[in-house]
Amino acid sequence: MPLPDSPAQALDELNAEVVVCTKCPRLVEWRQRVAREKRASFADWTYWGRPVPGWGDPEARILVVGLAPAAHGGNRTGRVFTGDRSGDWLFASMYRCGLANQPTSTHRDDGLKLTDIYISAVVKCAPPANKPTIDERDNCIPYFVREMDILPNVKVMIALGSFGWDGALRVWELSGHPRPRPKPRFGHLAEVDLGGVVLVGSYHPSQQNTFTGKLTEEMMDAVFHRARELTK
Predict the structure, then answer these.
(1) Cα dist. 15→104, 150, 194, 214 in Å?
(2) What ranges do the domains of the chain cover?
(3) Rounded (to 5) percent helix, strand, coil in the chain
(4) What tens digit of pLDDT does each residue of 21-68 get?
(5) Which numeric CATH code is attached to 7-230?
(6) Neighbour-count burial for 34-47, b at 16+ CB within 10 Å, e otherwise
(7) Where does residue 210 fall: left (phi above 0), alpha (psi -120 to 50 degrees), or beta otherwise?
(8) Rounded to an integer, what distance in angstroms lies between the CA atom of residue 13 and that of residue 207?
(9) Sign of the torsion formed by the C-alpha atoms of 187, 91, 222 and 182
(10) Cα separation of 215 and 10, whole Å?
(11) Residue 218's Cα: distance from chain center in Å?
């Protein structure tokens, strides 16, 4: 059993709050509607249909920052980046880089375990068209700030896409740290030392990027290899 006030217990308590959040009416309506109507290929699933908390190793030195759960991925399975093609790409790379025990992520009880890495998202609910509003981001970001406060060993944040990059910088500032000026520009393998934590950019493993070759397996692996170098 985790010790009182351990990172694992604190994360469990935070995530219990996250999954019952109803701060954003548009997101509540959308996630529940998707869960009712479903996709035909997942007609036999009982969708999660709630906010999706972060997950991974509570002692992680690497924190992955995504945009939001996918409507038929995390919103279906209840675990971020689980059950969609972005997750397939992401976890296969983590496996190749020694950060996951298996290359696939299909459901919450599939046996996947992460080592030295934790995954979260700026927005915890699946948004219509995968585009949360600024107000929805700001409603949700305090949960992310609390995650950063709880995770004791984070040395590297990997931002997936420009939304994740901007969210990571905002969380860093809201956590009481000075925000770098001028604002660092996002790019694949862009890197900025925030003062104790290094932010590394990565193109998002969306189908738009992976199908077109904008993001290759080698490029994704390079991000995780660089993150591991920075933790040494």
Answers:
(1) 23, 12, 26, 34
(2) 7-230
(3) 40, 10, 45
(4) 999 999 999 999 999 999 999 999 999 999 999 999 999 999 999 999
(5) 3.40.470.10
(6) bbeebeeeeeeeeb
(7) alpha
(8) 34
(9) positive
(10) 35
(11) 21
Least Cα distance to 181 among 194, 190, 171 occurs for 194
Neighbours of 26 (CB within 10 A): 14
Q: Does residue 17 register a pLDDT over 60? A: yes
Determine if the pTM surpasses 0.85: yes
Q: Is 203 helix (H, G, I), strand (E, B) or coil?
A: coil
CA angle 150, 156, 162 (to 5 degrees): 100
Q: How far apart are CA 83 and CA 78, in angstroms?
A: 9
Q: What angle do CA 200, 203, 205 make, to 5 degrees?
A: 120
Give every CB contact of residue 85 below 8 A, 6+ residues apart in sequence: 207, 210
The amino acid sitting at 33 is: R
DSSP secondary-structure letter at 41? G
The residue assigned the tokens 């351990």 is 6
DSSP-assigned states of every residue in 56-93: E-TT-SEEEEES---TTTHHHHSSTT-SSHHHHHHHHH
Q: How far, in Å, are 28, 31, 157, 190 from residue 193 at the CA level?
A: 36, 36, 10, 10
